[in-house]
Amino acid sequence: MFAKLCEWFGRAPSGYRPGVTLEQARRNLAGLTFQALAPGLGRFGTVDGGLVFELHERPLAQFLMHLVLTEFVLERPALDAAEARFELRHSGALRRQGLVCRQRAGDPALGARLAERLGADAHLQQALLPLDFKRLRLERGAGRWRVRLEHMGASEVVNRMPSFRRYVQLSREQRDYLLRALFHLQRLLGDL
Fold first, then answer.
1. Are strands 41-45 and 98-105 parallel, antiparallel or unpaired?
2. Cβ 1 vs Cβ 9: under 8 Å
3. 110-143: pLDDT as tens digits
4. CA angle (120, 123, 126) in 5-degree steps
5. Mean pLDDT over residues 17-37, rounded?
6. Name one Pfam family in it (predicted).
7. Which whole number is the average pLDDT over 162-189?
8. Three-state DSSP state, 6
9. Residues contacting residue 44 through CB under 8 Å, at least 6 positions apart
10. Dist. CA 41–CA 22, nearest whole Å
11. Could you please report the per-residue DSSP string of 13-66?
12. pLDDT tens, position by position, 42-58
């Protein structure tokens, strides 16, 4: 019984069309190279190859509706194989005033170095402060860093009653902030 419940809750919501949101996001990311890896999964890159990241569709069931969120995933080699996890968020109640880095696992000395670098990197701050992200996680393990950024745009809302589908576009301005943030995070994590 428990296995059947887990299988039912782990299923994609009815009406979910793998790859549709990815194709919409692909239009918003025009000018980048694209390679389809699977339905709902694609790899994007700059023409010069300086930045390569994946975009993953994440369907999320709600009552009489579902969301298709997109997660931008950037990977790069790490200097150490030790595991660590961090979450970044905006600070400030009404206005974004800065970034807060919370360590969820790993060596506290690494957390202190990372927080110091984040605070000192003006280019990264200028890209992340106006960026409308829901989640930003930095994970290190098995000799690799993985950046997982879930943006508020580039997602789809699908409702059953009343029936509608709406794609939340990734604006040109947010696209530029996103690409700059991923580029600077890649650079910042290069020697950590």
1. unpaired
2. no
3. 899 998 999 899 999 999 999 999 999 999 999 9
4. 105
5. 95
6. DUF3156
7. 94
8. helix
9. 26, 29, 32, 33, 34, 52, 53, 54, 55
10. 7
11. PTT--TTHHHHHHHHHTTTSEEEEEETTEEEEE-TTSS-EEEEEEEEEEETTEE
12. 999 999 999 999 999 99
pLDDT at 96: 87
CA dihedral (185, 186, 190, 192) positive or negative: positive
- Which residues are within 8 A (CB) of 86 and not within 5 positions of it... i.e. 6 or more apart? 101, 102, 103, 104, 106, 111, 114, 137, 138, 139
In this predicted structure, what is the pLDDT of residue 69?
A: 94
Name the band, by pLDDT with cuts 50, 70 and 90, for residue 97: confident
Residue with tokens 């950024």: 149
Residues in the chain: 192
Strand partners, 143: none
Element housing 154 (H / E): none
**Which two three-digit tokens encode residue 135?**
């989640």
Contacts of 50 by beta carbon, 8 Å cutoff, 6+ apart = 183
- Residue 9 pLDDT: 56
> Which structure tokens are listed for 164?
């509608």
The neighbour count for residue 93, using CB atoms within 10 Å, is: 6
Is 2's pLDDT higher than 50? Answer: no
